[in-house]
């Protein structure tokens, strides 16, 4: 039996409407990140700001792209971007193992990785070779985990960086590793300065906005083009200098 033209038109309209709604949802890019001073921080209302976050806000404003930015644990932020279309994560170190898992925009920042330990180690422990037989803590999913594990270090993970630093203060592990500025902020915010201090930096890393590989390559090209323009016109550096 043939479907009457009026009903057929209605069905087609409903289908097209559904497709249009789905497309609208896809057009809002989800941006995930962690609490990572001074790169990404949330204010009391949950608005994300920081040296990396502000650059990405400006980048998406220039690109006229709808987006939402949220802070969560690093492991969750990373996995969401890796597994969900139209999702990006920052501040992400670009490694050989991660290369094919994302489209890359950046770099948006550069940071240093450091080791932290008890004050009695200051000026005595100055390089990784000094702690080869020690336990080192880091947050799950951090690039430092793979980097140091490959070098044979005994690594202990936690779901949050602050837990790692408290474990050093309590003597449960020997050292913590984190970005130098982030680690110093954790120490200050948690009154750990008598128990945990910065010891040395051991590596540096460029940080990127890493987007799911299913994202439209034209969107990736647009974001990279506008980021280059931000660097050329000085706005990139002006944002960085605020922090």
UniProtKB/TrEMBL annotation:
<dbReference type="Pfam" id="PF00497">
    <property type="entry name" value="SBP_bac_3"/>
</dbReference>
<feature type="signal peptide">
    <location>
        <begin position="1"/>
        <end position="22"/>
    </location>
</feature>
<dbReference type="InterPro" id="IPR001638">
    <property type="entry name" value="Solute-binding_3/MltF_N"/>
</dbReference>
<feature type="domain" description="Solute-binding protein family 3/N-terminal">
    <location>
        <begin position="28"/>
        <end position="242"/>
    </location>
</feature>
<protein>
    <submittedName>
        <fullName>Transporter substrate-binding domain-containing protein</fullName>
    </submittedName>
</protein>
<keyword id="KW-0732">Signal</keyword>
